[in-house]
Amino acid sequence: MGIPTRFLFGGVLMRKKRISVVALLFVLPVIAILLAISIFPLIYSFYLSLCQWDIGTGASRTFIGARNYLRLFTDARLWGALRNTGLELLLGVGSQFLLGLALALLLNRPFRGRNLVVTLFLLPMMISPVVVGCIWKIIYHYQYGPLNFLLERLKLNSVNWLGSNQVSIYSIILADIWEWTPFVMITLLAGLQAIPDELYEAARVDGATRLGTFFWVVLPLLRPVMIIAILIRVMDAFKIFDLVALLTMGGPGQSSETIAFYNYLTGFKYFSMGYASSMAYLQLAIIVIIANVFLKSWKGREIS
Amino acid sequence: MVSLFLLGVASCAQAVKLVVIGDAGHNLKPFEWYAQTFKEKFDVELEVIGVPFGEVYEKEKMELIGQTGAYDIMIVFPKFLAEFAANGWLYPLDEFIAKLDPKMEDVTPGYRDFYCKYGGKVYALPYDGDILNLYYRKDLLENEEEKANFKAKYGYDLKVPETWDEFLNVAEFFTRKKGEKLAGQVLERAFYGTAYYGQKDQIFAWWGNIFSSLGGVYFNEETMEPGINSEAGVKALEIMKTMHQYCPPDVLAYGYEELKDVFLQGDCFMVVQWPCVGKKGADANQSKIVGKIGVAHVPGVKKDGEIYYRPLMPCGRVLAIAAESKDPWKAYQVIQYLSLETSLDDVSTAETGLDPYRYSHFNHPEAYEMFENVEDAKIYLAGVQQNMEKGYPEMVLPGTVEYEETLGVEISRALSGEKTPKQALDDAAKAWTEILNRLGKENQKKMYQELVKGWRAAGLWE
Q: Is the domain B133-308 a CATH 3.40.190.10 member?
């Protein structure tokens, strides 16, 4: 006589249920932490963005709907900060990519002391961002800084690196390039190292020139890594804060103020929490759009 | 039983641990110097947390809003006191003052009546008496060659500038390029007539010295219309724009350290700065112009035959106790000790940036040992006191930081040539009106009127 099916499957079901409960219990702490530090702040900050809450006055939160978002469109200071951030993305990340690629190509060949050279190139990235800011503040000093000293020695005019509203944002971009080009370099170098030597040989055998090999073999294979490196740098550069705070405090005027810095001022100096939250969501939307463009480009390449 | 007893004794014997927060650096030194004294006298152990100057406000506020009790003793900039006290975040000190007198009658009126009190109650004790002063190179002023050249160019004798017009003349005269002569010596690098605090958090005070002397007011008391873009405000910014030509090219990036150093390293003829610069100027470890510094009142305008000048009182420091403090009485004993017993030692040393705020600080020039002699110390103190008596108070309202920084951004824009002075101040006034409406106009008006009433009673407002 066989065991009745319902009891057989009922037993399996009971065991499955027990396993599910046990699994849930194991996963619960992680879910709780995720909810606490990720999901809840996301939902709460979105709710805040729909409220007016100026903590400094002791006033309570007042629901105002989308008024904070409408205010974003008329805030000239915000658009100035976005413009500066855009400059950092185009010039800063663009330069980091080109320089990083050039360095990676140069270092992608065996030579004596290569490991030491690579390590030295990585140093800027390993220094604490606050220390980088302090170093560049000294470098940029108009009277005592080594940069103007060098320019003077070359019979050129000193540059007002931090005190000119036309130059200050570029000074920040330059310091950022110095700090993060090594990251792009090491990422692309890893990608180059993953390209099999046989492909280079095959290209050589087929009569490809070095330039041809670079454009038709190396670049296509390196593309996914390039996209990742640029995407990570774009997301980081969008949040640039430490260099701004240490070098210029966003000045003179607002000429080097980035969106992250203005967001910080709004939330933690002026304590206008509702408006600061809406600004944060604007940044999130922009970053998500940019990330999607990059990832679609990557997926498009994969499909082809 | 024995171990329980010992545990009890041990816990009783443990000193009370209090947490202090303030701007990192020289102003926290007294907490370290007297750590042993606090332990012996009050059975208190201090944990001192230093944060960057520009972050003190938000670091303190975040913990106070959250009522975390993270801090017991707080160094507070007076402009935040009203906000902190109004929100119930500070412990009122009147009952403690009745038990342990901090001798507030010895404190100069501005600090005593405005920077330590709110709503008639005392919430803090003074710790640092900031007032802006004019420092200049007296050796260059006394140089015969420079005097003759100045007289030939401007038609009057070279002297300490007392009006803004004289200030601009002297600044122009002493701005020299590398290779030109200064007091008979060929300059190895450029020398500047003056400099100012260019970063947006405090630049309003340097503009404010001129604005206040021209009769400017922050707001109209009745209508709360901003007064910053009045005729006085625009003229003040135009004067500052002229002054800008005689400053180092990177002056708009100058904070406290850069402004102090450009003068103390001998690259600039005169600056308006806090009292600590006078002390540090007499310390050979920090200054290349020891013995060459004069102190005077900030320039003003001639009014009815007299010079009307009003130096701003930006920053300053007071010691407050958090409402959530674990032991407010012990915290009070510590701050009373610093504000009274050791205050003369703390303000008379070049190792701190703390400045005089008690009459007794001004009456003991011999304590200021960094000066070559007592006479020099007396001159320094007389200069500071002269400015303190005519101090123009900083606004102490919720939102003051936003008002000041917004104004600072526009002043900076005008000085960098991005906007005209009128455009910049009109935009600043528009921003002030928006802030005012957002924070609650009626409430702000009530608080501002109370402030003005108090300033008037103390003879600091017309």
A: yes
